[in-house]
Description:
- By secondary structure, the protein is mainly alpha-helical.
- The protein has one domain (8-67).
- The protein has three helices and no strands.
Amino acid sequence: MKLKIWSWSEFHDCACRQCKERSTEWAEHVEEQRARMERKREGRIDEDLMKMREKDVKDIVQKLEIEKPKK
Length: 71
């Protein structure tokens, strides 16, 4: 099943600067989501998820070092 990705301009046809910026942001968001799905299909690990995991591990290690009992 293939999903149709709607563009911002299909919902809102306006030439004001704010709407043009929004449509650009929307296009970037859609492209980012499409790239993530492609990486997921190919079985590659999502870079954002890896960064998040690295940060979580660093936070846990730091917390454990703080809580380490003094001898």
